[in-house]
Hints:
Number of domains: 1
Shape: globular
Low-confidence stretches: 14-18, 161-170
Strand content: over 45%
Amino acid sequence: MMNLRLIFLALAALPLVASADLTLTGRSTVMSMNMPSTSQERVYLKKSWLRRDQLDRGKAYTYIYDLRGREINALDHSQRQLQVYGMNPVANTPEARISQKELKLELEPTGLRHQLGAWNCVEHKLDASMPVELGPEKATLQLAGKVWLAKNTREQKELQVFFKTMDSPDFLIGIPALAKTSPAQTRAVGEILQRLFTHGMVCAIEVDLKYEGGGRMAELARRMGTRLNIVYEHASGDPVPDAFFMVPPGYQRVSR
């Protein structure tokens, strides 16, 4: 479920793009098929750039998003290799077609809260569902768990302008090579996160994902349920150098 972690981390950071610099530090854990995978995460934002650094099982990776150019540079530091991706090529595949109107999202405050820098993060119970396509089958993707949201922040106000620059939800699919194994899941997660950001900035997420449906594909997917935890532990507004968003010299570009 490496692609799922990337989807959540990238999407959770994308709407924070604003005039001010921002650095978020945290960790993520994906539990799939009873196998946990934990990584350390750091996200840098500046102007129309986003950089995500990941340390996963001793290996370091960097993903640099150029939101204006709609391009992603994926760096494998151990191999000193670079792969370049466009952000939108799988937007119109049949597997990615999902109706926004049928997205259901319920949030219920629990009364618990914690601080993340200047953000007052309030815990909410989360229940969400959305129709998806698993090959020829129609199914429902369900998310249930908790999300911590910070309302009325400067970043939340600025993200409204950012959302207007996005011509379609397909912009959020991200790296096609990682999302193509389940474009329906990728698109659904993107839609749900977009809806969450109308309620506040995401400080942390703890959700279970599962499929419901009567077909064989849905039954197989249901047996491989996934739990995802993302926690941001530190937020900083210190200036981020432009050089952080440039590909370092000496990396070999490889084809996908």
